[in-house]
Each structure stands twice: as structure tokens, then as C-alpha cells.
Design a protein that fits this description.
single chain, four-stranded antiparallel β-sheet
Length: 72
């Protein structure tokens, strides 16, 4: 549910943004522009990787709570 796309002028960082606790994590991002489904950043140095990791983990945890995966 996360991806990184290098584009000519910037990087697009695709992260799930719809889960309920995302606001508190997103407030800790530094230099970015937010679109509907991604963040635009100039370089990876512009964001705190620990915050990105926390956001990805929180999104995966929320996804697992909504649609649990069970062994068959």
C-alpha cells in the first residue's frame, strides 16, 4: 500500500491517507505537497524516514483491522 515514484521534478510518495489516525502523523511531515493519493517531495532528505515508516505501519495495522487475513 506504499510506493515511491521518481518523476522529473520531484518524487511522489504514495501512502494510504484515509485511516483515522493519519492526521497526527501527517502533521510531522516537513516539506511536502499533499495530493489525493500521494505526497510530492523534492528529495528523500526533505522527509523524516521514521515518520514515513510510522505512517506505513499505522496504515497496514488499520488495513488489517478492517480486513483481517486468515490462513485457509
Amino acid at each position: 500500500m506504499t510506493g515511491l515514484s521518481a518523476q522529473k521534478a520531484r518524487l511522489s510518495l504514495y501512502i494510504m491517507l484515509w485511516y483515522k489516525d493519519s492526521g497526527s502523523i501527517l502533521d510531522r511531515f516537513d516539506k511536502y505537497k499533499k495530493a489525493k493519493a500521494c505526497f510530492y517531495i523534492n528529495t528523500l532528505a526533505d522527509v523524516d524516514i521514521a515518520v514515513v515508516e510510522e505512517n506505513v505501519r499505522a496504515g497496514l495495522d488499520d488495513l488489517a483491522a478492517r480486513w483481517p487475513v486468515k490462513a485457509s
